Amino acid sequence: MTPLLAWSLLVFSVSLSNTNAQATTSDPNLVGTWASKSGTVMTGPVSNIPDFYDPVNDHLKEPQLPGSSFSFTADGYFEEARYIVISNPAKPQCPKALLQWQHGKYVLYSNGTIVLTPIKIDGRQIYSDPCQYKMSIYTRYNQTETYKWYEVLTDERRGKKRLNLYQFDGAPMNPMYLEYNPPQMLPTVTLDPLITATGTAAKAKATAAKKIKLKRDLPGSYKKAEDINADHVLWLGIGLTGLGLVGYLCV
To answer: Which end of the chain is less enclosed by CB atoms within 10 A, N or C?
Structure first.
């Protein structure tokens, strides 16, 4: 059995277990913007660090240090930002890096499981492998995520609330700390203008368009997605995300 197939079966089994659990209202302890220890990766527009994702220019900005950030609202919306660096001991000059951003809706189940369902066309990913590609690869990113359970504690050393997320297989993510409440997020509606909407969705889209004037030009320093196998890069990104969660435990 291939690792990818085994991974898919495990995710499927977790999904089946959720059918026996009931969706619940949002946990107020979960609401807010959470960020890993580096504090250099943050969702939404914040005043003290550069925006991770700029939807106006369709641009992901590389932070100073790796890290991750999640935001949750009380009414079921989420936003996620990650910067992952994977070292290469055999070739130190060839580290791989990933920047990923997506947003959408989440469901919290009575057994503590959280399922994140992103807006498919809004997610973005940059994949960098300097020893394989001369330029970074910029693609759309869409990955539904399941977290088996979570806990919110008070970190006595930092004096902040700490969020511990556990992946679908029970493996812990790096802890994140509450940085903002209310959460700092971009508009929760679709940001990509390519979608055709009607009715209520059209009104929501029009409201978002008033807030953000969107542009979809690919930055010149990135390799066009059509020049490579985008599906291959997507699965590389998903795989490296799992490795990266171990790769930057010190962050």
So the answer is: N
